[in-house]
From TrEMBL:
The keyword Secreted does not apply. It comes from the Bacteria. Residues 9-66 form the HTH lysR-type domain. The lineage of its organism: Bacteria, Pseudomonadati, Pseudomonadota, Alphaproteobacteria, Sphingomonadales. This is LysR family transcriptional regulator. Keywords: DNA-binding, Transcription, Transcription regulation.
Length: 296
């Protein structure tokens, strides 16, 4: 059986060799590594003894790689680079205190933002940076640690933690409700309806839940974000289907009212989307645990 210790030189010797090859001398390699010239020379001598071949041609204080040295450097440099990258990555996982989280705009403003003081109190060492994103993307390529997603558990190359479902209710301005004479769900059929861009069928499903069939084609303006939709409804532009948890402030203040008890429970769900290695990131684990507790 071979002695693996002899076949695997020390990292110090390899670092001295690679630095001397780049710097063209033992003294400059020592300055780069924080070692003395004699220490570098000794490490390279041990490496050459282990390999049983010289790696440098000496020219006084200067050295140049010989043929064996050039071949050896070409072989080991990729491995040294991978070791360096793996070391930085592991240190990053253990010590990073900042997080990059992508969130749906309305969810971030109405659900996450009011709760962030609690996260800061619990983990003052964490810095969480948020960006608004509405559609799935590659977490690694976009350099995000996690995201908030609504829909199905279909985000590629990620782990998805279910948070909660959503109940959408009809919401409108109280003056608009009185002016239009809305008393029953069927009264909405010929009134202005406001749509969320990615949920064009929501109104059809709500009318079906309210027991109304044989619907005429439903028309109305589209809004990409729920808060834009809520603002339009509050301004008297029509009736909107809005997640109740997003419009609690408007409901409490009376800016918006919900004329009917029928709620649309969406088939989708809110998820915390995490990069696959999230358990190796202490800060991300803390964010996950805090968010799950907030949901509960």
């Amino acid at each position: 059986m071979s002695d693996s210790r002899r076949e695997l030189p020390s990292m110090t010797a390899l670092a001295c060799f690679a630095s001397a090859a780049r710097e063209g001398g033992f003294s400059r390699a020592g300055e780069h590594l924080g070692l003395t010239q004699s220490a570098v020379s000794r490490q390279i001598a041990l490496l050459e003894e282990s390999l049983q071949t010289p790696l440098f041609t000496r020219h006084g204080r200067r050295v140049t790689l010989n043929e064996a040295g050039r071949a050896y450097l070409e072989d080991i440099e990729p491995a040294l680079r991978r070791i360096r990258q793996a070391t930085i990555k592991t240190m990053d996982r253990g010590s990073r205190r900042d997080l990059a989280i992508a969130t749906l705009p309305s969810f971030g403003m109405r659900w996450l933002a009011p709760r962030l003081p609690g996260l800061t109190t619990r983990h003052p060492e964490l810095t969480v940076n948020f960006a608004a994103r509405s559609f799935p993307f590659n977490l690694r390529e976009e350099r995000f640690d996690a995201a908030i997603h609504f829909g199905a558990a279909d985000w590629a190359d990620a782990e998805m933690v279910p948070l909660f479902t959503e109940q959408a209710v009809v919401a409108c301005a109280p003056d608009w409700l009185r002016t239009e004479g809305i008393r029953a769900p069927a009264d909405l059929l010929d009134k202005p309806l406001l749509f969320q861009t990615s949920r064009r069928q929501a109104w059809n499903r709500w009318f079906a839940a309210a027991g109304i069939e044989g619907l005429p084609p439903l028309k109305g303006p589209n809004f990409e974000q729920f808060l834009m939709l809520a603002q339009a409804a509050a301004a008297g532009s029509g009736a909107a289907l809005l997640p109740r948890f997003l419009i609690e402030p408007e409901l409490e203040s009376g800016v918006l009212v919900t004329p009917f008890e029928t709620a649309l429970v969406d088939e989708g769900r809110y998820y915390l989307v995490l990069r696959p290695d999230w358990r190796e990131h202490a800060g991300l684990v803390k964010f996950h645990d805090w968010l799950v507790e907030e949901v509960r």
